[in-house]
Write a structure and sequence with these properties.
alpha/beta
């Protein structure tokens, strides 16, 4: 997996770009890297562009990611949007969203970047 990110403190927003094969460990590594950035603060919203990525996770990996999210969320309320194209990443995302209710991170998937940004800003539900 190749990735990059930028942080927009004034927007309370992290933007991530991910290409290639997304594995549990590579995604956790990216999130940990963002969390260590001096411009990051807990509770920031995030948009992850996964449109040029792929991956296959089994349920145990999805569950471990959910546990990781619960650990890092620490009941802070924030929104994470994923930009996706139809495929396996969408299926993984739906399961992650379903089993992660209540961890403090609201998650949704979008095909349109503008819709994702409007949702992140709370302009739509």
């Amino acid at each position: 997996m190749e990735s990059s990110y930028s942080i927009e403190p004034a927007e309370n927003l992290v933007r991530m770009q991910v290409t290639g094969e997304v594995t549990l460990e590579s995604l956790k590594s990216l999130i940990n890297q963002v969390g260590k950035d001096p411009h990051y603060h807990p509770g920031m919203h995030a948009i992850a562009d996964l449109r040029h990525s792929h991956g296959q996770w089994d349920y145990s990996e999805i569950q471990r990611f959910r546990d990781y999210l619960a650990h890092i969320a620490q009941q802070r309320q924030c929104r994470w949007a994923a930009l996706v194209k139809p495929g396996a990443v969408v299926a993984i995302g739906y399961v992650v969203i379903l089993i992660s209710e209540g961890v403090g991170i609201q998650m949704r998937m979008f095909e349109d970047p503008h819709q994702a940004l409007h949702w992140i800003r709370g302009e739509t539900d």
